[in-house]
Design goal:
Helix content: 40-55%
Strand order of the largest sheet: 3-2-1-4-5-6
Number of strands: 9
Number of helices: 12
Order of helices and strands: EHEHEHEHEHEEHEHEHHHHH
Length: 284
């Protein structure tokens, strides 16, 4: 039997997928009303947290943050069976995850962090990507079951905090990309271009195709072989900022990027590739 704690969008659809595969699942949510619809698919809805996990061989969690995970696990602990495995899919901090894994190991309880790059529909369809790190033997034992929950499981090494770190890295890029879209549409509005027309740019221009090359350039420190000089990139940033202001708008992200460009221009990098703005962030 599986105990599943946290019936938000991901947790509820993970549960539906588990039930489709015939798994016995008990579910709990801090707000009980969110868990009750899972009874329709045959999950046992519990209002008592300890009873939810009593008899479970695996306990899965999808909660909000480190504090919620620690609070819920401590409250559920009296119901843990000997040999139970905790699988936490929550996006948590690397430091909190490391401490949590150590704490439960000292208590003799197997703890596996397995955050995901999955939307609710992915959880329902068992697609997307799941990350994992920590003790290899534990992961190898769990991997067949984790693989049923997602399209791909990536093991990132024996450091229990590594999956948490890579999840934050991935989410940071998604945030940067979305913030870029906000500036993109703000600039389009200032130039009297409709959002749908602006979005049509990506039907024939695919900036994603340039990512591998840009990353390789940054990692190889090939800034002296420019494809877009920093001075020219800064000029374009100025045009974008000025044009947006002229249309009565304001950009949120680009001005901060321009400030970083200015720092490198002052260092004499005007004719280097503009990707040099990432140089100071690289770990040596």
């Amino acid at each position: 039997m599986i105990g599943f704690l946290g019936m938000g969008l991901l947790g509820s659809n993970f549960t539906r997928a588990l039930r489709k595969r015939g798994e016995q699942v008990r579910v709990w949510n801090r707000t009980a009303e969110k868990a009750r619809p899972l009874a329709e698919v045959g999950a046992v809805v519990c209002e008592d947290l300890v009873e939810t996990v009593r008899g479970a061989s695996r306990i899965h969690l999808v909660l909000s943050d480190d504090q919620a995970v620690d609070d819920v696990l401590e409250r559920a602990r009296p119901g843990f069976e000997r040999g139970v495995t905790i699988v936490d899919h929550t996006t948590t901090s690397p430091s909190g995850t490391r401490e949590r894994a150590k704490r439960w190991a000292e208590r003799g309880v197997s703890f596996q962090h397995a955050p995901v790059f999955m939307a609710p529909q992915n959880a329902l369809e068992s697609t997307g990507v799941m990350l994992a790190s920590g003790e290899r033997a534990r992961f190898d034992k769990l991997e067949p079951e984790l693989s049923k929950m997602t399209g791909k499981v990536i093991y990132l090494g024996d450091d229990p905090s590594r999956a948490a770190a890579f999840k934050l890295l991935g989410n940071s890029f998604l945030m940067f990309m979305t913030a870029g879209f906000a500036d993109f549409f703000e600039l389009a509005k200032a130039m009297d271009i409709s959002s749908s027309d602006a979005a049509g740019l990506f039907k024939f221009f695919n900036p994603g195709a340039t990512l591998p090359g840009r990353i390789d350039r940054i990692l190889a420190d090939k800034f002296s072989e420019p494809s877009w000089e920093l001075a020219m990139a800064r000029k374009d940033a100025r045009l974008m900022i000025e044009e947006t202001a002229r249309g009565g708008g304001a950009l949120a992200v680009l001005p901060a990027i321009a400030q970083v460009m200015d720092k490198y221009l002052e260092r004499g990098h005007a004719h280097d590739d503009w990707t040099i703005i990432a140089k100071d962030s690289l770990k040596k």
